[in-house]
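Lecture 7 notes: from sequence to structure.
We start with the chain below.
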Amino acid sequence: MSVRVQPLPGVGLVMRTGALLAVCADGGTATDVLLALVREVAADAGGADGSVLIARLAGRLGGGGPACAVAALGENPAILVRGDAVAVAHGKQGKVELQGPMLRYRTIDGPLSTLRLSLPGSGIPDPRTALDAGVVSGAGIEAQLDWPVPAARQEALPHRPAPEPPVGTLPGRAVLPARQPDRALPFEAVLLLPAYAPDPG
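Predicted structure tokens for the same chain:
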């Protein structure tokens, strides 16, 4: 799976760390604490899938604080929102949209194809930009996920045993057809009689 993440222009901060993507309003120290928490959950992922990571984050985040939207990619992707942030994802079950103001999160039936996390006033991403990791200014992110196409499975053909040679022949020898008489030529019957010899006495 390859993921291209682009920041949306506007007021706020966006983050990409491990399997987590996040956008949050810039609320000073409270925002710093939020970003540190997202970074910590991503670092302690331990191979957990997206739904587990979002559940861990929700359990430690609480209902108060700066508006934010967080997404966890990978197996069983999930999204979380708080405040006036919005998360929109397109996956196997179609479009899924989640918004506050209460803290809410849910698992998405993947795989995801596109994802958008945004705050009010977010703009259109510049196609020249990309966020590989870290924190930058912005009011949201857009992510495009590309999944490898599975190779076509080739069905095994049924085994066909080699034909056995005809009886009376040896392997590798050609079998010649029996010669048929040529009925186009005339045929004459010949009567053979015993030869006569005079008596020598």
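Points to note: The chain has two helices and eleven strands. The chain has a mean pLDDT of 84.
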